[in-house]
């Protein structure tokens, strides 16, 4: 009888060890899958970025990392957004986005090339400077104030936001 109990205990110990090893294997596989999915998502975001086109010219933009930009990205995920901008006060172009985005307005003095959200539903691109309360969306890169004035300061323009 004693031998039978010892054999049963040994068999139980072997079964428990096997089950534990199987659970560890499943946990490792799940962790590896999750990591692979995260890497794939990161690669997709690196390969696709929010683009800005003014009229037919593609413009390089350094986008901010905030909830307003994330909402703007979501807005144009499926279809590009074409927005008509109008000149205002000889230093900016303003246009309605067509929906409200989250905002975190702060008092700031903008510079030529700044892209901001105004009142949560309008995008503003500056070719001059202004002090007001905005949520910053980004900044145009590689264009001087003179180039921006030439591009934006001669009448109303349209922009397109899209993924590439």
Main sheet attributes: strand count, strand direction, barrel closure: 10 strands, antiparallel
Helix percent band: 25-40%
Poorly predicted spans: 24-31, 41-47
Please report the number of helical segments. 3
Fold and architecture overview:
The protein has helices spanning 2-47, 67-75, 145-152, and strands at 50-54, 57-59, 61-63, 81-88, 92-96, 106-109, 114-118, 122-126, 131-140, 157-163. It is α+β, with helices and mostly antiparallel strands and 164 residues long. A hairpin with a 3-residue loop joins strand 7 (114-118) and strand 8.
Summarize, please.
With about 160 residues, this protein is an alpha+beta fold.
Features of this protein?
164 residues; 10 strands; 38% helix
Produce the secondary structure layout.
Layout: H1 2-47, E1 50-54, E2 57-59, E3 61-63, H2 67-75, E4 81-88, E5 92-96, E6 106-109, E7 114-118, E8 122-126, E9 131-140, H3 145-152, E10 157-163
């Amino acid at each position: 009888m004693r031998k039978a109990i010892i054999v049963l205990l040994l068999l139980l110990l072997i079964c428990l060890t096997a089950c534990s090893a199987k659970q560890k294997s499943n946990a490792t596989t799940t962790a590896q899958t999750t990591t692979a999915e995260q890497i794939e998502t990161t690669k997709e975001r690196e390969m696709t970025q929010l683009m800005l086109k003014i009229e037919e010219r593609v413009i390089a933009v350094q986008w901010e990392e905030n909830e307003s930009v994330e909402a703007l990205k979501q807005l144009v995920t499926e279809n590009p957004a074409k927005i008509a901008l109008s000149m205002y006060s000889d230093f900016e172009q303003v246009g309605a986005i067509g929906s409200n985005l989250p905002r975190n307005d702060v008092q700031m003095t903008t510079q030529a090339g700044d892209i901001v959200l105004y009142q949560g539903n309008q995008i503003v691109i500056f070719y001059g400077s202004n002090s007001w309360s905005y949520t910053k969306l980004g900044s145009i890169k590689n264009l001087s104030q003179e180039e921006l004035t030439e591009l934006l300061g001669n009448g109303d323009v349209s922009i397109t936001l899209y993924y590439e």
